[in-house]
Specification:
Elements: H1 2-19, H2 23-40
């Protein structure tokens, strides 16, 4: 659980930094991507996108 939480924090921070958007927008984008990939990704690639460098 701790690893997942840390991954969320780092992912949101990367969205903020590289896209130069607000924290609220970064969190919203993260949630939308998370929901999309939970619905559309296979079990083998469901969490792969979190490991991609932004």
């Amino acid at each position: 659980m701790l690893v997942t939480d840390w991954t969320v924090i780092v992912t949101v921070w990367r969205l903020e930094s590289y896209l130069r958007i607000s924290r609220d927008a970064a969190v919203s984008a993260y949630v939308l991507f998370r929901v999309y990939f939970q619905i559309h990704a296979s079990p083998f690639t469901g969490s792969f996108w979190l490991d991609l460098p932004l």
